[in-house]
Amino acid sequence: MKTIIQNINKAFDHRIRLGIMSVLMVNESADFSTLKELLGVTDGNLASHAKALENENYIVVEKQFIGKKPNTSYKATEAGRKAFREHIDALEKLIQKS
User: Fold this and answer.
1) What is the spatial distance between Cα 20 and Cα 75, in angstroms, rounded to a whole number?
2) What is the pTM for the complete model shown?
């Protein structure tokens, strides 16, 4: 028997990870500064939550230099997009059942 919360993904439990994925679902990529500003988080919080999503292979991290300044950008992987859509679908089903 399937439970109503079966497809809710623990990787997206935290609001910062949910925010990162939400931004990346509607943008091809986002850099560290943009995510930090949009989500209103500290450097450390953003870095640790991005690392958690990277470890799940839900995002890829690209580091480069623009001039002499380092730039880190993030992109959602196809697996990350699929997992996030399933997570959102599961939340919508849960809300509809309530």
Assistant:
1) 10
2) 0.91
Amino acid at residue number 68: K
Q: Is the pLDDT of residue 28 over 60?
A: yes
Range of the domain at 47: 12-93
Q: Which amino acid is at 80?
A: G
Residue at 6 is within a domain: no
Cα diameter, the chain? 57
Q: Alpha-carbon distance 64 to 75, whole Å?
A: 14
- For residues 39 and 67, the model is more confident at 39
Does residue 1 carry a pLDDT above 60?
no
Q: Which residues, 6 or more positions from 79, have their beta carbon under 8 angstroms from its beta carbon?
A: 57, 58
- Cα separation, 35 vs 27, in Å, equals 11
Using a pLDDT cut of 90, give the percent of the chain over it: 80
CB-count exposure of residue 64 (10 Å: 0-12, 13-18, 19+): exposed
Q: What is the CATH number of the domain that holds 86?
A: 1.10.10.10
